[in-house]
Write a structure and sequence with these properties.
It contains 19 helices and no strands. By secondary structure, it is mainly alpha-helical. The protein has one domain: MFS general substrate transporter like domains (Growth Hormone, Chain: A, Up-down Bundle).
Length: 428
């Protein structure tokens, strides 16, 4: 299928698992935040005042994991070029698996934040190792297809996170009935990637063409003519990351906000909250899966056109979802349009960013351009949480996020991303 050998499929599956579990571990807190935060801070669940606290702590811990993600991406990106792609994949998966599982034992919100930071280190590093491994193990003409297929794992990871959260905080009543226990069990499932990581390392070899780089430096990314490629990749990553994290991190919180607005009795509120979280998350995820796969045909129009299309469509999706006065369930279904655009554009990065760099800089360059944007992104979710805590309507705040992809579309129209379609591969 697709003209790939059995071993190439194995490499793709190994990286697919790594990134899927990466997303799974990375988003578990966002699912359990409506239960976890009140539990750790001894607050009554379901009240408007508590929801504002949940919003701000969701924002804080999202920013914390983004900073860890950025540092880990840059650090492990360099390790990828020196130690090897598959070895680094193992190290990063073990790091984020153990960091996530440790969250189950957090006695307070501050310790939880520290463990989320540790998880972020591994999550950020895994992307650079996995994307580089796939890019170098596949024929060049297959990189768009395999890169987009690699990112479908994000949808799988999100589906798994939704399922685990729904099972332990809603359906499995023996555990769900104890709010202080259910979210801890959810975090413990973050250990699953550790077993997968060991199996991957036993089966996957380093790419044949790879050789250890001699101390690759970030400064090398800004030497002409590499500088323009690096800046273009950074610009597209910044826009995509800021938009994704400032919107997707609050899908569960928006779902709870909509449930609170119905003013239901406690038992009905708990059931509706769980249903709304599952509906919004799954709609976003299905849209993301479709949007990711659509990067394959759209990439044939050119990389610049791809970003012009996705960022312009992201503006429309945010405005349509959050501006009109929709019924709660309609608004949650419309999360699919946000997934299609804001989530879908990430299917391009596993094939576009490796195209920007020669092999000796591919891990360093991919890790830097994709992850340094998370440091820039980190204040944005926090700002969203502050606005909501100060009394701003969450739906209005979400609609204003459309400004970010609008700027991205303008940058793409101006030619910020370097066009790599049909261009020769950079040599070392």
């Amino acid at each position: 299928m697709f003209g790939l050998t059995r071993y190439q499929w194995l490499v793709l599956f190994a990286a697919w698992l790594g990134w899927g579990f990466d997303v799974f571990d990375g988003l578990l807190f966002n699912f359990v935040a409506p239960i976890c935060v009140p539990s750790l801070m001894h607050l009554p669940p379901g009240t408007p005042a508590t929801q504002k606290v949940v919003f701000i702590w969701t924002a804080v811990l999202t920013s914390v994991i983004l900073i860890g993600w950025a540092i880990g991406g840059i650090f492990f990106g360099r390790i990828t070029d020196r130690l090897g792609r598959s070895r680094t994949l193992l190290l990063t998966m073990l790091t984020y698996a153990l960091g996530t599982a440790a969250c189950a034992f957090a006695p307070n919100i501050w310790v939880l934040a520290f463990f989320r930071f540790v998880s972020g280190l591994g999550i950020g590093g895994e992307w650079a190792a996995g994307a580089t491994l796939v890019a170098e193990s596949m024929p060049r003409e297959k990189r768009v297809v395999t890169g987009a297929l690699l990112y479908t794992s994000a949808s799988a990871g999100l589906f798994l996170a939704t399922f685990v959260n729904d099972t332990f905080t809603h359906r499995l009543t023996a555990i769900a009935s104890d709010p202080n226990l259910s979210w801890r069990v959810v975090f413990l499932t973050g250990l699953i990637p550790a077993g997968a990581a060991v199996l991957i390392r036993r089966k996957v070899k380093e790419p044949e063409a790879w050789k250890p780089a001699d101390a690759p430096a970030v400064a090398d990314l800004f030497v002409p003519p590499q500088r323009r490629r690096t800046i273009g990749g950074l610009a597209m990553s910044f826009v995509a990351l800021i938009t994704w994290w400032s919107s997707s991190s609050f899908i569960q919180a928006v779902a709870v906000h909509l449930a609170v607005g119905l003013k239901l009795p406690p038992a009905a509120f708990a059931a509706t909250r769980a249903e709304f979280i599952t509906l919004g998350s799954n709609a976003f995820n299905v849209g993301g899966l479709v949007g990711t796969l659509l990067t394959i045909p759209i990439a044939s129009l050119g990389r610049r056109n791809l970003y012009r299309i996705y960022f312009s469509a992201s503006v429309v999706a945010l405005l349509v979802t959050f501006v009109p006065d929709w019924p709660p369930t309609t608004r949650l279904w419309l999360m699919a349009s946000i997934g299609l655009t804001i989530f879908g554009v990430f299917g391009s990065f596993p094939f576009y960013l490796p195209e920007l760099f020669p092999m000796r800089l591919r891990g360093t360059g991919g890790g830097f351009t994709y992850n340094v944007g998370r440091i820039v992104t980190a204040p944005f979710p926090y700002a969203v949480g502050l606005l909501v805590r100060s009394g701003a309507d969450p739906l209005v705040v979400m609609s204003w996020l459309a400004v970010i992809p609008a700027l991205g579309a303008l940058l793409a129209l101006a030619g910020a991303p370097v066009e790599t379609l049909g261009e020769p591969e950079l040599s070392d």
